[in-house]
Amino acid sequence: MSDQIRVSTETLQSRAREYGKAANDIRVILNNLQRLQDTLRSEWEGAAFQGFERQFLELKPKVVNFADLMQQINTQLDKTAEAMKQNDQALSKNFGIQNS
Length: 100
Description:
Elements: H1 9-43, H2 47-92
């Protein structure tokens, strides 16, 4: 394991935003699929649809959990970037450097 950090706080914040956007995109897609599922429910009856519906309902929480994970990664990366920035500012004081 390396002791060097090779990413800037700005890059880390950018990556965090990408994860946040992915979380939002997943939620939008899931909402669209839910509307499609609701439409199909009114158009398709029988055992085949019931099986299809069951699969959808089993998969939906996993997709929600994945979106939640993407949002958690977003938060963790943001917090890490902020900690890196604060640490750099604190260390710069050892050299008499004033950060604005």
